[in-house]
Each structure stands twice: as structure tokens, then as C-alpha cells.
Amino acid sequence: MTRKQKTVLIVDDDDSARAALTTPLKTDYHVVSALSAEEAIADLREQAVNVMLVDVRQPGISGFELLQIARENYADVEVIMISAIDEVETVVQSMKHGAFHYVTKDVAHDALQSLVRLAVERQELSRQVVSLTAQVADQDAPELVIGSSKSLRDIVGLVDKVSQLSATVLILGESGTGKELLARLIHRKSDHASGPFIPVNLAAIPADLVESTLFGHERGSFTGAHRQQLGKFELATGGTLFLDEIGELRIDLQAKLLRAIQEGEIERIGSQKPIQTDFRLIVATNVDLEKAVKDGRFREDLFYRINVIPIRMPPLRERPEDIPDLCRQFVERYNGRFKKAVEGVSDSAIKLLSSHWWPGNIRELENLIERLIAFSDKPWITDEDLPIEYHLARLDTAGTDGNENRLQEACDTFERNFILRALERSEWNVSATARYLGIPLSTLKHKMGRLDIRELARRLRGA
What we know:
Layout: E1 7-11, H1 15-22, E2 30-34, H2 37-46, E3 51-55, H3 63-73, E4 78-83, H4 88-96, E5 101-104, H5 109-140, H6 150-162, E6 169-172, H7 179-189, E7 197-201, H8 210-215, E8 216-217, E9 229-230, H9 232-235, E10 240-244, H10 251-263, E11 265-266, E12 275-276, E13 280-285, H11 289-294, H12 300-306, E14 309-312, H13 323-338, E15 344-345, H14 347-354, H15 361-375, E16 380-381, H16 406-425, H17 430-437, H18 441-450, H19 454-462
Parallel strand pairs: 1-2, 1-3, 3-4, 4-5, 6-13, 6-14, 7-10, 10-13, 15-16
Antiparallel strand pairs: 8-9, 11-12
Helix pairs in contact: 2-3, 13-15, 16-17, 17-18
């Protein structure tokens, strides 16, 4: 793909001086001219300028004033000040006001070419600083744990097939299932792997800041916009932009997102000049987008545009066989963070964790392991260390052969859980629990024996 030429704006009211400066630059750059600072300001509003060559002495607004305006409103534009004579005071003032360099109008062609090239490189480096921060975060980010479940292995196989494509990927799944980790995996396997991975959680951004965060803004474009800011679309150039919770995007911003996808360009708030974009887009949501389209909350054209490669992340309860691998990763992670030496999670604890419903999915499991590691002083995490809610049995309708005992099993499950909660509330005192439940002590003891509660209560009480 042919790289777009950088734009150099020469600001000088002298025709011969402009021509002399244009000649050595026109081969490698798109050169535009302005006869005054006022005209230059208009050019800055209308097109993307990379470097300005500004004559110190201008009719009307001076060169130094134009430099200050550029620094305050177009901070990423590099400015080289020029003058007919070499004056120390002029050089000092230029550097003081933030100019990239200062030269006289009789500068040699090769020196001017070198200087402009350095200015362009500095601008690109400045833009990369923010993106590099995101890349460092991506390197330190956890990786997707690929366990033994067939569903997740099938997803990884699909990722291997589509990661090299430029098509948009739509990741569907409940909160906490690892959608961002999957997006990072796609990025690392793609042609954009050397570029930044820019994650944006749209649900976490205040509604009045979403547009500015995504598209950027110019100085003074709204109250509080004290300086120019690049948006996430620009920061993702050459890499991957991950928009999480796409279903939360306002309907008016959906139109701007659609344009960015279709035309490959955006406009910052307060600007009318288009900015070219080049990134891989991955979006995710836990919302039923088809229903949102029917309800008028999501644009149908945008839905079809992002629903090119849909991938559904299964909830943790549908792949309990991955829990041992996830536990091993989380134990290793938080051993390092808390300077602990926990060897792992016992088989009995894994069995209990595998029967849990996991409404918070992987995020809930990670938070649990983090808490257990933080307070652990034992070599292994056992079932005694787990909070009581993980011990409460859940009726497994698939675990009963036939229908003969299903109702009794359901009643026993409810009764067992209710008694365990009552024991916990009464600090594991059986007599106090009987009084709380309003039943004779002998009846409670009989139920505890019949429902195999005694041993479990003993372990929980000692935990």
C-alpha cells in the first residue's frame, strides 16, 4: 500500500522565499503555502499538517504568535521557524515558544530536507509514545487460558483461521467470560501484532466523554477541552482497536463508528478535516444485538457491518473442565504478587468449584483465588478454605437416573442448603440453630445425619 505523503505548510509572504523552500521538499512531501499567519490558521483547521515552516516576520499575526497558537491548538504539528538573518534573540525566542528548530532562509537544500525529515520523525515518535504504553500493557496482560474443553479449543482453532483476515470480529458472551483475552489473542496472531492493542470499555466511560475518547478533540471544542487530544481510533493506527460493550454505544455515535469502518476516516470534535485510520477492529458485547436492532437501540446497518465473524465465548458453567487449568494460572499469578508458595488447589476443592454456577464467570473465579491466596498460610487450598456458598449443593437434573427420586432429591438439596445457612448464621452452634429454625434439637440432629451435614459443618466450622 502506498504511504500517504506528509504535509508541509510554508508560511511566508515572500513569493521567492516560498518557492526556494518548496523546491527541495516537493518531491517527498505534499507542500502547501500560506501568505499570512491568518491563512495558515485556516489551513490548519481544514487539513492535517505535519510540519510548518514559519517566517518570524509576518504581516498581522506574527510568526511567534502563530507558533504559540499552533502549540496550544495543534500540539502534534512540528514548527520550524525561519528568518532572513541569524539572530541569537530570535533563536532563543523560537526555542522558548516550543519550535522544533530555527533556520535562516538561505539554508542548504540537503540541510532543510534533513531537518524536515527529523521533524516528521519526531511527530511520529510523539504519537507512538501513547500507543507504546498500550503495547507494554498488552505484553503484561494475562493470556487466554486454553483448557481441555472442546468448546474453547474450537474457538482457538477458529481464531487461527481468521486472525490474518482484516474482517471485523464480533465476540459475544456474558460478562467475565474472557472476551478481551480472546481479542488480545486475535491481535497477537494477526498481521497487526507489531502495532498497539487499544482496548476501550464503552460501558465504563461517562456518556458525555465517549465521543471525545473515541474520536479525539481539538482545543476549545467544548468546555474543558484545554488541549488537543488524539482519540482511540488514531492511537490504534497500525494495530487493533477493541471496543468492549459495543451495545452500550449511543445511537448517534453508532453512525460515526459506521463511517469510520466503511470509509476508513474520522473527524475529531471541533474539526472538519478527515483523518485516515488503519486498524483491525474487534468488538464485543453481552447484549443481544439482534433484539437491540428490533428495539431500535442499535443500527441495523452497523450490526451487519460488525457481525462479519461472530465468536461466542461460552460461560464457565458450560466448560467446568477448564477450571483446573484456570486455577493453576491464577495460583501462579497471585503467588508472585503476594510472595506466597501455595502449590495449588486440591482435587476436592476443584470438585466443589466445578459444581458452582459461576454467575461472574472467569472473573469471579479469579477474584476467589486471589482472596484465598492472599489469606492462605498452607501449601494447598482445600475445600475447607472455600466460602460456604461454594459448599451449598445444587440440584443437578442430569445426575439422577430416571425420575423416581428427582422430587426427593430437590427437597433434600433445598433442606441441606437451608440448614447450612442457618448453622452459619448461628455460628455453627447446633442448639442455637434449632431454636432459630423453630424445630426440636433432636429433629435437627436427625436431619443433619440424614443429609450428611455433620462432617461438612465440622470442616466449615474449623476453616
